[in-house]
Amino acid sequence: GENVEQHPSTLSVQEGDSAVIKCTYSDSASNYFPWYKQELGKGPQLIIDIRSNVGEKKDQRIAVTLNKTAKHFSLHITETQPEDSAVYFCAVRDDKIIFGKGTRLHILP
Amino acid sequence: NAGVTQTPKFRVLKTGQSMTLLCAQDMNHEYMYWYRQDPGMGLRLIHYSVGEGTTAKGEVPDGYNVSRLKKQNFLLGLESAAPSQTSVYFCASSYSRLTINQPQHFGDGTRLSIL
Questions:
Q1: Closest residue on chain A to B49 (Cα)
Q2: Could you read off the pLDDT of B21-36 as tens digits, one per residue?
């Protein structure tokens, strides 16, 4: 079955700097790659997603890149702000959706 | 906009007790899911449903049962609760099989403790 590895588990960046979170997956048939943000006491919320026929997608300060050959994809957050502090999950779908174990992002003032 | 509503939000059970978690969605979504979230483990799929009257097993189905008698409701049951089932449970729904512009919508979770 599919296996998703997410790194790092914790990340601290200075406000205004960029943050990058990386995920790798095992099943080359996987074709949909969403990213979720989870704030304390809330359920995960989709922030950006990408299909396997696209290499990069951007939405304001958030971007996702996908390398299908290497089977890895990354979340990039630029000009980080305090409200970006949260836990971020990558996920992969082939038959069912499989989540990474999450990255706790701290934005330092 | 209610979205996905989970009840209860918190519950404490004793080992061996039974209970049912309720998930309701008002978006006319076909697919519904139950996950558990444990520290350092991310979200793991317990059971899911692709339509009214259907259910299927996920990654970690043992010790749980589900029912989807109405399209808008998805129930998760614990017949005999065990301490290993202490977790935060999330329900989610989606219009169809997950793809671009058809994301999952999550509820805010049920925190369950088994003593």
A1: A96
A2: 999 999 999 999 999 9
